[in-house]
């Protein structure tokens, strides 16, 4: 998500928009010589470890993509057709709403079992969702706590208490009672957090390395920051799974390698590189060369993401609006985008809602020149009294992000702001910056909508009440707690007309930008490369990842 985050579900309109814009090469599930071949080992080369594989804590696209091999969610996305289709995964269908979309009922498929052969039950799913409320299981999305009745005060199952708004009348039925109507709740349940966890195998905060499988693959070994080895789950049955296949014998995930070295290794297509694929985007220093090489086109996946790359300004540490506005004008987006690989990475951004997401409205409150407007920036600093400021900037410890940090430092140096860059281990980056104890003046962030609707962008990133509510998984990196914004978020949440709500979100986007709490940088594309013997990869516009659910290695 760069470390990519937060994209699990798409509305039908947004799916069509995303797919229409998607340009990708690589092997689809139908390429190669007929049916997928069986056997062999797929190697996945990753720059850093996963933030989490614990499904209730996963909130990155890499983690979510890998979890698709291990865990089943209530609903999921069948991406074998011309556009993704929401289907039942653990559930027999996409759920049944009642009482004005405030009650949702799901029935589990027969024959789905855990890696030890025991049945997956509704009680396992209930327990799994309840885990998200525990202070020890942090980092995941906020929807369960926001929507389930009683969720605001529930503290998880480890004290022996259950959440009454999740009911399991029998072993195959689960019912969710919501505090507000949520018409697209069944798209939320495609996220990893809505999966089961067998209580007997829950290891709490260490579950990341011990995730119990009901998917086609299970964890054989996990050495943090080094390697994850997945092997076949012999109890998984194709007949119970409408989404996944079990083609390779093993998936070997190598962690902690330099991204540029990964790029060059897979580009070479020599030896083991032929059966390898990457999950992190091509390094900015390599992107232009690789994306323009016609010999690599069949192995390159260039997937537009429903999301935004941006710089968050901590409004509690930089309280002067004039200073924040000066930063808006001072940032040279041309050098910033250059750090990520130039135009191949994406278009310049001026809004927080990106094109293709419901509610997007085109506007620009600050410099129309992507190189910035130093004259305006300096004038604003003068109005603020020309303060001599020193600011901390949090970035991932990758060459791409460190080059980004240098670009920001140079831009702000021109208006008298000294920037101290703080590189943070990429594997722990979001866990670090999401914890309110670790506040920075400036923070690099990218965000992909959980499904392409502004309801999964603006409320998650700018509802200031979440700062205190979710102190270990705060997504409001600008620490914006504007009562007018919070009130409007509540008002829009009650709207039942989607078009009306989207229009209101577009107006709210502009209202938020007037607070100068964030600098939108680019609307993102993600590009990854695979070896020539990797087949069955589906370019996934939902996660903006090459999906591995049908992957195979060619003989």
Task: Provide a descriptive summary of the structure in words.
By secondary structure, the protein is of the alpha+beta class. Helices cover 26% and strands 21% of the residues. The chain contains 16 helices and 21 strands. The strands form six sheets. It has a six-stranded mixed sheet. Helix 9 (333-340) packs antiparallel against helix 11. The radius of gyration is 23 Å and the shape is globular. The protein starts with 11 loop residues before the first helix and ends with a strand. Mean pLDDT is 91; it is low at 1-33.
Strand order of the largest sheet: 13-17-12-16-14-15
Question: Number of DSSP helices?
Answer: 16
From the spread of the alpha carbons, the general shape counts as globular
Proportion in helices: 25-40%
Question: What's the rounded overall pLDDT mean?
Answer: 91
Note the gap between the termini.
Answer: 32 Å
Strand content: 15-25%
The Rg value, from CA coordinates, equals 23 Å
Summing up helix and strand content along with how strands pair, one would put the structural category as alpha+beta
Uncertain regions spanning at least 5 consecutive residues? 1-33
What's the count of strands?
A: 21
The major pleated sheet works out as: 6 strands, mixed
InterPro entries: Peptide/Ni-bd, SBP_5, SBP_5_dom
Keywords: Signal
Organism: Streptomyces doebereineriae
Protein name: ABC transporter substrate-binding protein
In a few lines, what is going on in this structure?
With 555 residues, this protein is of the alpha+beta class. It is 26% helix and 21% strand. The protein has a six-stranded mixed beta sheet with strand order 13-17-12-16-14-15. Strands 8-9-10-1-11 form a five-stranded mixed beta sheet, covered by helices on one side.
